[in-house]
């Protein structure tokens, strides 16, 4: 009688796991190819915002100065020191901030809705689609920019290509694809954490490379040829995905096409009462992740404008050098911390230390008045880059193998919503305070980092240390009949309590 009752559960488990390819014995090849794709696309894709910002800034300098100031080799705000020129510089900063805000809204609002579902669908249709979709959108964005620069079109035409990028999920879907792919090709929790950290660090290195390239391409060539080069790089990445990436998910029929079903899969981690005390940890950590996302996106939106304006008045090359130096230094510190730190302390404690250091660096940046103070910001930040990948890894480790697309989709959605909030609020705040206290926005970001650190400390104090499990298993999806010897992390070693975080 019991065997008759258990039979449907076995079939259901096999059905659930049928869309997962067998994990490869070695994930090195897959990780190398996906990292190459990640570096190529991120280098080109993430360079669009500094490229667009500096082009818009140069356009407004020509408008407000009646074309009398050249912006090719020197920052125009340094070329004029009169009160009248200072007033022009403030108006340029305000107008540029408004235009960048419009661009952010155009790609962030559609991305929110796209990223709610694509991760869950990718558990059925495969990961390649996740890679290709944002690449095609980014290509459309650069084509629109090429036309605006070539034919001197109104800046509002930039919004068309940016909207296409948003409808593709933008960089958020691409990050989702890489994180889910890294989870697919790894077989242990330690390997997964390392793979996610390497992916996050590769994003940073590629961003740094793109920042250096952007400065030199603007200085040596111009905005048009810079965008041509970046478009070519994206097309190369598309070719590698089509012919080089190994699909890690067997394509199966999506039995439920309703977005509501996939919405529940993506956000069920935070509302499903059957997960018991794990639901609270999901909620707290996703709030921490949201706060960190607001800080990162908000800083990214205003930092270039901050460097272009007084008292720094940096040119494109100097901005590129600083961005590369910041990214590479913090990435190296983060890698060393994540590799050596867990020997002594929990990774969550490393994340808290990173958040406090991030808070200190933001305060320093907001109060900076000289180049030396600004160059000291990365030194203070140091290991702050570990916070986001640690939170990603913890959330990924709390779900089963066949739920990786859904959990990363939920993080991508939260990331997109918070990027929208951070970009909107911080750009508006910077625009309102640029004439009085330019660094006010950075001080607000420091307060956000402080709140995130406090919440993470609360989790560490209230909940016990996670047990370490080696093999990632995929238990039956039917939660009404759980195996008493398994939890969401795998088989529980004998003698240990069934305590999950």
Outline the biggest β-sheet.
2 strands, antiparallel
Question: Spans with pLDDT under 50 lasting ≥5 residues?
Answer: 1-18, 466-501
Helix content estimate? over 70%
Number of domains: 1
CATH topology: Growth Hormone, Chain: A
Structural class: mainly alpha
Description:
The protein has 501 residues and is mainly α. The protein is 72% helix and 1% strand. The chain has a single domain (28-70, 82-250, 265-463), classed as Growth Hormone, Chain: A (Up-down Bundle). It has helices at residues 2-17, 28-45, 48-64, 76-79, 83-115, 118-125, 128-151, 158-167, 170-185, 189-220, 223-244, 259-267, 278-308, 316-340, 347-367, 371-375, 377-381, 387-397, 404-433, 440-462; strands spanning 486-487, 490-491. A two-stranded antiparallel ribbon has the order 1-2. Helix 10 (189-220) runs antiparallel to helix 14 and helix 12 packs across helix 19 (404-433).
Summarize the structure in short.
By secondary structure, the protein is mainly α. It has helices spanning 2-17, 28-45, 48-64, 76-79, 83-115, 118-125, 128-151, 158-167, 170-185, 189-220, 223-244, 259-267, 278-308, 316-340, 347-367, 371-375, 377-381, 387-397, 404-433, 440-462, and strands at residues 486-487, 490-491.
């Amino acid at each position: 009688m019991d065997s008759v009752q258990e039979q449907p559960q076995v079939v259901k488990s096999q059905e659930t796991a049928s869309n997962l390819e067998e994990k490869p014995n070695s994930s090195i090849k897959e990780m190398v190819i996906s990292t190459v794709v990640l570096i190529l696309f991120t280098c080109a894709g993430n360079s669009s915002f500094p490229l667009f910002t500096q082009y818009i800034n140069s356009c407004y300098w020509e408008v407000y100065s009646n074309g009398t100031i050249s912006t090719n080799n020197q920052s125009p705000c340094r070329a004029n020191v009169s009160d009248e020129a200072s007033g022009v510089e403030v108006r340029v900063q305000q107008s540029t901030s408004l235009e960048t805000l419009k661009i952010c809204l155009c790609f962030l609002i559609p991305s929110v809705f796209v990223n709610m579902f694509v991760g869950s669908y990718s558990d059925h249709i495969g990961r390649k689609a996740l890679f290709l979709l944002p690449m095609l959108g980014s290509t459309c964005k650069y084509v629109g920019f090429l036309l605006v620069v070539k034919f001197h079109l109104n800046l509002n035409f930039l919004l068309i290509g940016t909207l296409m990028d948003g409808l593709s999920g933008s960089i958020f879907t691409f990050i989702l694809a890489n994180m889910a792919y890294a989870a697919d090709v790894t077989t242990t929790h330690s390997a997964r954490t390392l793979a996610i950290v390497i992916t996050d660090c590769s994003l940073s290195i590629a961003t740094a490379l793109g920042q250096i390239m952007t400065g030199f391409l603007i200085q040596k060539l111009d905005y048009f040829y810079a965008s041509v080069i970046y478009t070519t790089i994206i097309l190369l990445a598309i070719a590698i995905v089509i012919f080089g990436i190994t699909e890690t998910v067997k394509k199966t029929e999506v039995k439920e096409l309703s977005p509501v079903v996939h919405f529940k899969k993506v956000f069920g981690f935070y509302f499903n009462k059957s997960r018991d005390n794990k639901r609270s940890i999901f909620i707290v950590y996703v709030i921490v992740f949201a706060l960190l996302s607001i800080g990162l996106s908000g800083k990214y939106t205003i930092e270039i404008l901050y460097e272009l304006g007084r008292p720094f008045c940096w040119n494109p090359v100097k901005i590129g050098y600083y961005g590369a130096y910041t990214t590479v230094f913090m990435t190296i510190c983060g890698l060393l911390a994540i590799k050596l730190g867990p020997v002594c302390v929990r990774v969550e404690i490393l994340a808290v230390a990173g958040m406090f250091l991030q808070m200190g660096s933001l305060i320093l940046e907001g109060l900076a008045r000289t180049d030396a103070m600004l160059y000291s910001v990365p030194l203070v930040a140091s290991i702050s880059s570990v916070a986001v990948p640690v939170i990603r890894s913890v959330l990924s480790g709390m779900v089963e193998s066949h739920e990786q697309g859904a959990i990363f989709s939920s993080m991508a959605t939260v990331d997109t919503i918070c990027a929208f909030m951070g970009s909107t609020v911080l750009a508006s705040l910077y625009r309102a305070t640029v004439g009085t206290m330019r660094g006010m926005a950075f001080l607000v970001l420091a307060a956000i980092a402080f709140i995130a650190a406090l919440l993470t400390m609360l989790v560490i104090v209230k909940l016990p240390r996670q047990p370490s499990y080696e093999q990632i298993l995929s238990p039956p999806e039917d939660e009404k009949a759980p195996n008493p010897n398994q939890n969401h992390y795998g088989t529980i070693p004998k003698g240990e309590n069934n305590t999950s975080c």
